[in-house]
Amino acid sequence: MSHNNEGHCGSCAHFGDGIPSEQLVQIRINSQDSGVVGGCDHPENSSHHLMVSPISSCDRYTPAEAA
Ligand code: SF4
């Protein structure tokens, strides 16, 4: 089982809008793309209702604190 690589949405502090917290913890542990998509709450993205997968990425990546 691999872990999220630095820079991927699954380990970004802005990822997970709309995903239950327990499921979000699992996504942060396991980087596999399970078909789940979540909202990005970064101020520059939220107004666009951007939905991303755990293996997506962008230049605004901010590491989430270790769970
Ligand atoms: S789109 Fe960018 S800011 Fe949003 S969750 Fe992904 S890496 Fe983070």
Q: Give the uncertain stretches in residue-range form.
A: none
Order of helices and strands: EHEHE
Helix content: 10-25%
| Structural class computed from helices and strand pairing | alpha+beta
Largest beta sheet: strand ordering:
1-2-3
Strand count, sense and barrel status of the largest sheet are: 3 strands, antiparallel
Q: Quote the beta fraction.
A: 5-15%
Mean pLDDT value: 86
Q: Given the structure, what is the number of helices?
A: 2
What compounds sit in this structure? iron/sulfur cluster
Calculate Rg over CA atoms: 11 Å
Terminal Cα span: 17 Å
> How many strand segments?
3
Q: What gross morphology would you assign? A: globular
Tell me about this structure.
The protein has 67 residues and is of the alpha+beta class. It has a domain at 9-52. Helices cover 19% and strands 12% of the residues. The chain is built from two helices and three strands. It has helices at residues 21-29, 43-46, and strands at 15-17, 38-40, 51-52. The chain has a three-stranded antiparallel sheet with strand order 1-2-3, with no helix packed on it. The structure holds iron/sulfur cluster.
